[in-house]
Amino acid sequence: MTSTRCAACKHLRRRCPPDCIFSPYFPSDNPQRFAYVHRIYGASNIAKILQDLPVHIRGEAADSLYYEAHCRMKDPIHGCVGIITLLHQQIYNAQTQLSKIQAEIAVLSAKAQTESHYQHQVEHVPNVDENF
Amino acid sequence: MTSTRCAACKHLRRRCPPDCIFSPYFPSDNPQRFAYVHRIYGASNIAKILQDLPVHIRGEAADSLYYEAHCRMKDPIHGCVGIITLLHQQIYNAQTQLSKIQAEIAVLSAKAQTESHYQHQVEHVPNVDENF
């Protein structure tokens, strides 16, 4: 007999009711997804978070809870705050690079303008041949 | 009589033991810090995460748990994954801006080089006065 319980009810060793709060977001073919969030938040906290949300956005909430739980399993000290720190660093680096390149472009722009002005002057010098 | 219980033990209405796992990271003058992590993770899950870590990094872990709990309270659907998405978008925008500006600098560079070459040629044209 194939079990029709969701991953959460299987994990919690309980009957999966027809109105199971976990069932739509924790399918039986991905037991690790529930194992992770269960380990970090506990079943009652996940149920509470999901129940407090309208049905159509519970899937998105379950996804982000899984993502955060997964991060916390990989990095128990920083969780996904470690990723946020890393991304802030990347933004800082990109902004530094951008500032440098903007300064470089200002120098080149000024140089191009000066040379274009010089060229313009040269083009408008009276033709010496015409005077002889 | 002033209470010497930490914020966690006060919240949980229990005696604060001398070796309290929460006490160093959840001081009594910041009750909201524990209230947030308690609401999202539950006391036993926070205790478990802290206990599994060496003492010297538990403070950092408590900080990141508080940060994530705070994010989840503000945005129950995405938690701090919402911030990660936002930062990824910022990095994408910075990279796009960087690519555009790099293309612009390549054009200006080529222009500056061409004009410098032109100027060099003009400077080496024999002086017509010398021929007369």
From TrEMBL, chains A, B:
Highest taxon listed in the record's lineage: Eukaryota
Organism: Olea europaea subsp. europaea
Domain LOB: 4-105
Protein name: LOB domain-containing protein
Matches recorded under Pfam families: LOB
Protein family membership: Belongs to the LOB domain-containing protein family.
